[in-house]
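pipeline/complex-builder :: batch 7 item 3
reading input block
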Amino acid sequence: MENFGERLRRLRGNRSQRQIASEMHIPQTTLSTLENQTNAPRGKVLERLASFYGVPLSYFLEAGSGPTERAREWLRSVRDADWKGRETVATHADRGLDEDVKEAIAKRIKQKLAETSHK
Amino acid sequence: MQKLRISNRPPEDLSGEEIVETLLEETGTRDRLPTDETKLLEFLNLKQLSFDFAQEMDFLQELPDLPNKLRAALSLNDKVVVTHSNLSPKRCRFSVFHEIGHFILPEHREKLFLDTDETLGWWTKLRLEQEANEIAADFIFQGNRFTDESLAFPLSCKTVHQLAPKYGASYESGIRRYVERHVLPCAVIVYDKLPGDPEESDIEDAQYKIQYTVVSPSFSKHYFAAVESKEPFSRGSDIFRVHAARNVSSIAETQLVVERADKANWYFETELFTNGYKIFQFITRPVRARDKQA
């Protein structure tokens, strides 16, 4: 995961620190320090950087979600669960389908599965 | 070494992003491109079946515009994802990821398989479908990976042309994702062909209309969220510079003027390209932010 300084540096692209510092009216040494910082500064400095580059504050603060034990448990539970509910389907379609059509699709799928397993 | 963090939230509070990240990690598909949908199906104990919906489900013929508008279905009882055999490989892959989304999102299992049309409002159904689409895109682009990778390249549609094939994504979904998540101000206007007379499909007679606009959050904040045009775009319009182009890498650079509510104009440098069906106009910051009309 990129740290704050790396994300800030990326926004500068091919432009020099001197050029950006001049446009932001801050000393070049300040910009250099910020680009080498691991953690994001708080308050006005961060707001000014976000405003200058036209990015949301969250760009500098995002930590990313990442895998979690809770999600892992959930995925295992849905994988192992034996679902016995109504004969219906969830669909990916360009229009909504009535319940009776979805039930008919579910039944046809069951038949096709049976045919496939007999082959 | 794998690192996980403790979370005590109930499953209903799990975010889609968190579930996607965990599934990619669990299946060993993270950072392996394009994302292998068969590994996700295998991990989730889901079978995949493909057949011609038109041939095999004749009851669909009685419904207008079906079965070709039905792309895929998920049966929880049988743990199977079924796809229409007429789908292109990219569309098929997206549909499989979409159905996996319904399978793994906690709320979807309850609402789509326990509720009925009578208890589930159309607005909720629409939201669930959009969420499944977002999950599908998250699998294809591996969460923020595509976005993070794209930041190392110049702000240009060329970046999408370079990266989209690597992710197994279409250029259209690639440019959408690129713009939607970019931290810098950028936008894309998508033009679709107006339906013409199939008997007179002269390439010169084609007309386009704006189908949709996608903007990055910072672009929306500083400029606009969408544009419109009362007239269709015909031959002579700038966008026709790529109309007959044979591949996406034929990029035409043009200027675009967008009129503001206060009658001043924004002048944008743009990049035009086509995927053979639609025309895409990629926009970054305006060259001149304001230019009062004389």
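note: The longest helix of chain B spans residues 122-141.
queue -> next item
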